[in-house]
Structures are given as structure tokens and as C-alpha cells.
Design a protein that fits this description.
Layout: H1 12-24, H2 28-35, H3 39-46, H4 54-64, H5 68-72
Length: 85
């Protein structure tokens, strides 16, 4: 029998990005300058139209001076993260 992991809560990634950006008072242009990502990419992620690549989230982690796993912890919203039990 195969036991599948719970679905990732992909809705939380854009919310977390928006929260952090607003918390710092950064515009899309400010964040684009800090990450080297396009303004369009940032908008697409925040609006949930794309998830982005690992390289995208790596750049965002550095811009916000947060560990990469800080963003991805949001994927487990609504269920117990692995290793928590």
C-alpha cells in the first residue's frame, strides 16, 4: 500500500511573499532590484499564477534575509510538517 504525503498548500507561498514584501514596505520594483527577478515574475507569484522555481525562491530568501526553509514551511499549513512528531 502506498501512503501519499498531504497536498502542499501552494496558496500559502504567495501569501507569505506578499506579507513579507508589505511588512518591509517594498514595491515590486524594490523587490525586483533586490532579487534580480522581473517585476512580472513577482506579480505572477503573488497572484498565484505561478509557483516559481527553486532559484526564484533562493533569490527571494536572500532578499528577505531568511532561510529558504522559512518560505517552504508555509507549504505545510493545514497539516503536520514532516519530522514534527
Amino acid at each position: 500500500m502506498t501512503i501519499l504525503p498531504p497536498d502542499a498548500n501552494l496558496d500559502e507561498l504567495p501569501r507569505e511573499l506578499a506579507r513579507l514584501r508589505h511588512e518591509r514596505g517594498w514595491s515590486y520594483d524594490n523587490l525586483a532590484e533586490r532579487t534580480g527577478l522581473s517585476r512580472r515574475t513577482l506579480i505572477e507569484i503573488e497572484q498565484g499564477r505561478t509557483v516559481g522555481t527553486l532559484a526564484t525562491w533562493h533569490a527571494l530568501s536572500h532578499a528577505f534575509d531568511l532561510p529558504l526553509d522559512g518560505f517552504f514551511a508555509a507549504l505545510c499549513e493545514g497539516h503536520t510538517p514532516p519530522g514534527a512528531t
